[in-house]
Design goal:
Low-confidence stretches: none
Mean pLDDT: 86
Strand content: 35-45%
Number of domains: 1
Order of helices and strands: HHEEHEEEEEEE
Helix content: 10-25%
Largest sheet: 8 strands, antiparallel, barrel
Structural class: alpha+beta
CATH topology: Lipocalin
Shape: elongated
CATH class: Mainly Beta
């Protein structure tokens, strides 16, 4: 009797293990998140860095405390419009403060283009994807210098903005 019980328990345990090891079917993950809707919000600076790009191994320096000595820059993106609240900030890297924006590719953006109201333009690289669920917007702007006829990279600023709900 004990032998039958042990054998039945072993068969049951083996069956449970085998059945539980089957791969689950993949379910639909839903629609692709809109990047243009993902950026539409108010953003406030949370971290700032300067990167020495000319050095053999780029050195990254946290300059967030420098920005915190005055008002933190705030960015607002609407469907097509852009506003940068930079009054009272330490340094303004966001032009005249108003204008329009666009991505280089609406499905998989790498760059953010800002067209300011005074007809000047800026290009920022996106440091990460930006969906409606993402809480951080990372922007990078690289500055260059000319040596002879060659354009060489000098340094970059990286700004991390936190979504304001």
């Amino acid at each position: 009797m004990k032998r039958i019980f042990k054998f039945t328990a072993l068969i049951l345990a083996t069956t449970i293990i085998v059945v539980s090891c089957r791969p689950k079917k993949f379910s639909d993950i839903g629609d692709v998140s809109s990047k243009t809707k993902g950026i539409q919000d108010n953003w406030i600076l949370s971290h700032a860095y300067v990167v020495d790009e000319a050095f053999a191994t780029p050195d990254k320096l946290d300059i967030t405390d420098f920005y915190k000595t005055k008002t933190l820059p705030t960015l607002k993106f609407t469907e097509t419009g852009f506003t940068a609240l930079t009054t009272g900030t330490v340094k303004n890297y966001f032009g005249t403060g108003t204008g329009t924006w666009s991505f280089d590719n609406t499905d998989f953006p790498k760059s953010l283009y800002i067209n300011y109201s005074d007809n000047s333009k800026d290009t920022f690289l996106l440091g990460s994807t930006i969906r409606t669920t993402d809480l951080v917007l990372k922007l990078k702007k690289t500055f260059y210098y000319t040596k002879g006829t060659a354009k060489k990279i000098a340094y970059s600023y990286i700004w991390e903005f936190t979504r304001q709900n």
